Amino acid sequence: MIIDCHGHYTTSPREHEAWRAAQIAALKDGTSPPPRPVIADEQIRESIESGQLRIQRERGTDLTIFSPRAAGMGHHLAGADANAHWSQESNDLIHRVCQMFPRNFVGVCQLPQAPGVSPENCIPELRRCVEQLGFIGCNLNPDPSGGYWTGPPLTDRSWYPLYETMVELDVPAMIHVSSSCNPNFHATGAHYINGDTSAFMQLLTADLFADFPALRFIIPHGGGAVPYHWGRYRGLAQDMKRPLLKDYLLKNVFFDTCVYHQPGTDLLAKVIPVENILFASETIGAVQGIDPETGHYYDDTRRYIDAIPWLTPADRQRIYEDNARAVYGRLSNQLNHQLS
Ligand SMILES: [Zn+2]
Question: What is the pTM of this model?
């Protein structure tokens, strides 16, 4: 089985994002929020069958761990209440996709984070999504300010209540920023990769996993700059008198394979232990074109994993399936439930 641990509903019916725009406009005008959007099952079916499901079939993958559009989370655009409604709308839509296509999608939720608001406020929505909707993880934004990094790092104790709930529910978080409102940082070209890299460095400097040995994070986009600069991070940890990275981070931190060329994927698999790599494509996502050097889609990441000569069949089995089942502790049961 090939499990893609990183997909967003980027093709959601336009009523969905139009509702968010109307909600933001109403907040600005001081008027009452718009009524919930009406989206027909047929619209959802059409968007998935012509989009993500078609690509799954073309590329021979089986299951996508599916979450709301990351850039659409926009935690910096509104306060906690409005973001809570927006998260519910977005997560309910993912739930409908998973109900319609139970073999192909399992849900991961957006959290109603907001700048300056304790992450504790996300616990009710996380519980609702896991306990009632069958979701198996969450996307955690390390910078709800959208590119200005005004909040505390991920190792700050203000995050702890949320982490306690994640551990209790046995769900990991993908550390994933949303859009950027800082014009210095292009969203998917700079802000995403900054977010991945910055989050890893935050984790390196503290003892978060001594407090939460069962907490699990996935760093997407191949871990940002981390694998390429692994020596820098090992060296920084050494200078700070930290233990070896493999001993204090790699039991809890995992990397996806959203690296859109062969040499980068080779490097990821050479530097990061196979146990810590989860297959992903982030399809349909930031990079949608065809690479003229190969004739294949940049985000057809399965080709790169298949082409790494030194990986054994057991290694590929781990990257494609076993690691995802281990990191997303509820995945196997949820899949059985969806197929029963
Ligand atoms: Zn993403």
Answer: 0.97
Coil, strand or helix: which one is 323? helix
Q: Which of 125, 282, 293, 321 is catalytic?
A: 282
Q: Check: CB of residue 135 under 8 Å from CB of residue 128.
A: no
- Amino acid letter, 176: H
CA 32 to ligand 1 centroid distance, Å: 31
Query: pLDDT tens for residues 220-232?
Result: 999 999 999 999 9
Q: Distance, CA 241 to ligand 1 centroid (Å)?
A: 33
Task: Delineate the domains of the chain, giving CATH numbers in brackets.
Answer: 3-339 (3.20.20.140)
Contact 108, 4 (CB under 8 A): no
Whole-angstrom Cα distance, residue 111 to residue 174?
11
- CA–CA dist 52, 8 (Å, integer): 9
The Cα–Cα gap between 203 and 212 comes to 12
Q: What is the tens place of the pLDDT at every residue in 163-179?
A: 999 999 999 999 999 99
**Ligand 1 centroid vs 243 CA: distance in angstroms?**
30
164 has catalytic annotation: no
307 contact partners, CB below 8 Å, separation of at least 6: 262
